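User: structure tokens for this one?
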Amino acid sequence: MKAKYIFGIVIIVTFTVWAGISFNKTLTPYVSIAEAKSTSTTVQVKGQRADNGTFDTDKNLFTFRLIDEQGEQITVVYDGAKPGNFEQATEVVCVGKYENGSFKAKQILVKCPSKYMEEPAKV
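Assistant:
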């Protein structure tokens, strides 16, 4: 084989391996609250809100309680504003890490049923 073909193959393999490793780092798995407490990586925790939460305007922190499917509760602390439709949420997904006794969320995803409900037929 010629040197330029070998060099090309090495570049393609290197790029493919780098792309695979980079993609794998962006994956954030769904876990239970118990699993989130035992890991130090970024994860997604899904559950129902236990309260409407509180917002600290001085620190810009939104805090609320989350209950997962197993009934376990956790305090979620989010550095940002309360999502607009939080009170109507049927389910909340928090992306972040468990640190110092609470779940530090980087992102909060709110699932609101009103967006998906069928409109009644007009007669």
